[in-house]
Design a protein that fits this description.
Shape: rod-shaped
Structural class: mainly alpha
Helix content: over 70%
Radius of gyration: 29 Å
Number of strands: 5
Order of helices and strands: EEEEHEHHHH
Length: 176
């Protein structure tokens, strides 16, 4: 068990205000005057419960994002399926017309192809964004899962608060 550097005492309390572990002497000192404290095990249990809920929300978000990605991919396939028959119809009609209309056929085909490519490019960009969000969510989910595997309360709190900077205020903001 780690000792509080200032008093060489065991870290038995968690200062919710400062988001740090302290000893019982430190919790009564001027540095932490008026602060809110919780025993380490209670703080760890609270953080664990909140992180489990947070992890579940991340998993739910990933599932929703995967559904969006599947819908987007289906939309892309539908766009490709719709574009091909249009090109065929335009070709058939313009083959029956004279030279002037053949030039027009090429113009219309080019317009359709550009629209298809633009639509596919936009959809592909959206899919890339969705996949980036999924990837970032999976990284966050893995980080939360890794922290949740820590059984020692002190190491558990330190791992989350030290490795997540402002995310350490998670206990404070989630408990209000």
């Amino acid at each position: 068990m780690e000792l509080y550097p200032e008093h060489k005492e065991k870290l038995k309390m968690f200062c919710v205000t400062d988001q740090q572990l302290v000893c019982t002497i430190g919790s009564d000192g001027e540095k932490h005057k008026g602060h809110k404290f919780t025993p380490v095990k209670e703080a760890a249990a609270l953080l664990r419960k909140k992180l489990e809920k947070f992890g579940q929300r991340i998993a739910d978000d990933i599932n929703a994002t995967e559904r969006l990605a599947n819908t987007q991919m289906q939309g892309m396939a539908n766009t490709v399926d719709k574009a091909q028959p249009l090109r065929t119809q335009v070709s058939r009609q313009f083959r029956e017309m004279h030279h002037f209309l053949r030039r027009r056929e090429d113009e219309i085909k080019n317009d359709l192809k550009h629209k298809e490519l633009n639509d596919l490019e936009e959809m592909s960009d959206t899919l890339d964004t969705i996949e980036t969000v999924m990837s970032e969510s999976r990284v966050l989910e893995a980080m939360v899962a890794s922290v949740l595997e820590i059984t020692d309360s002190e190491k558990f709190i330190k791992s989350w608060t030290e490795n997540n900077g402002d995310s350490g205020t998670f206990i404070q903001t989630q408990s209000q």
